[in-house]
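ugh ok fine here u go
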Amino acid sequence: MENLFSIGELSRYQNISKQTLIFYDKIGLFRPAYVDPDNGYRYYSASQIDYLDTILIMKKIGFSLSEIREHMQNYNIDSSLVALRKQLTVIDSRIEELRLIRSRLQHRCEQMEKAKIYREKENGVVIEEMNARYILFQEVERPYSLREISIATKKCFAEAFQKQLPIFFQSGVTVPLNRIREERFTEAALAFLPIERTDRAGNIRELPAGTCASIYHVGDYLSIGSSYRKILHYCEAHSWQIVSDSYEFCINDYITTHDEAEYITKIMFYVEKMEG
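structure:
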């Protein structure tokens, strides 16, 4: 029709699908200037192209369709300035969230690369100085099986996501030293997530700076006893006294591999050099 664009023409000019234009019509966001009563074909006026541009720009900025529809019912420079300033705050918050996510992914990659190097060392045990760190923890209920560990871990993640806590994308467990000496290697007392220091949760524990003996266990979790025996033997042979429970950090797990034979778990104890 003269001075009007068909839905197909408008779709091509704006690089938007006809289905999207039909949907915008149905929700009252962008309705055609004319609908042919005989065949139901939609037609749009030239002035509507600018209106559609505004919708697409606002959508690109991050406004929802309902926000766009409400805003464009009666908008002017003042209402637009308020809406755009508000969206700047939303974007800044999203940028900060993405920065945090990126740093977590970088941390995970660095740990995996480090684990690949250290697992090749003879006997695998490393004595290292650790900086202070923090963990968000949940107690593991009896009988301390893998099921209870999984439940405690899920509680940690649920709390972290609900409270928007600054966790790292990693999990771990603490196994009491007495259980390890009794070869009850998989009976964890706590499940935890490494986290930045924060006062938004009460169940956070500081792991102080100190000397630690570490080993990377490669394989499924039920086989972890072999690595515990290695680290216990190493500490005894080299006069290192173990002064803490163990801390296990999942380096390569179900998130990054489907093969349990590729799992990598870092086992860590705090140690002190024995006199004489």
